[in-house]
Amino acid sequence: MELHTFTYNAFSEQTYLLDHGNGEATVIDPGMSQLAEQQDFTNFCELKRLKPVQWLLTHAHLDHVLGAAWIHDRWGLSPSLHSLDRPTYDQAPRAASVYGVPMDALPTLGHPLDEQSIIQCGEESLEWRFTPGHAPGHVVFICHAKRWVVGGDVLFRGSVGRTDLPGCNPEELVSSIENQLFSLPDDYTIWPGHGPSTTVGEEKLSNPFVNGAGTGMMQR
Prior knowledge:
By secondary structure, this protein is α+β, with helices and mostly antiparallel strands. It has 5 helices and 12 strands.
């Protein structure tokens, strides 16, 4: 499996495409918001001869679902999302109007993630972990075989996800980072929803908001 990343939309959101190694792929958090970005994604799939067959969401804030209607129309896919983030998904078009961002009507959701703990991707699999705090139904996707995490907006390089939006909870975010991410080996790479990648060990050591020493600014 190979993970590819794309930076899209006005929020510089990270969209991911997971190559299963058999010609099929999983889309995670599609943020493409304009024709040029859609064409860029299509061209890449054609170049690599990949067919998206599965679509996952870490959470449903508008910058992570701006490409939702297009993915559905282009490949006939419906997103899998944790059921607790359904209200976030339903409110995304309203949030888009507040920000003045054009957004097509969202497609119907597929099977909720809470119905399965392991997600098959060709011959490999992903584990998802429940990581609320930035959004009520936020999850992260972990590939133990390749030692990486697609982490959405939980933990960034030197920062953490926002906790001032509807449905956010600072204490839950700290708990998610400590219990679900910092419990992973230090060499696991974290691919976040914005900005550059980092590692579990780097953030445990030096993240100013929450770290393994318990001295971060958000520590309880």
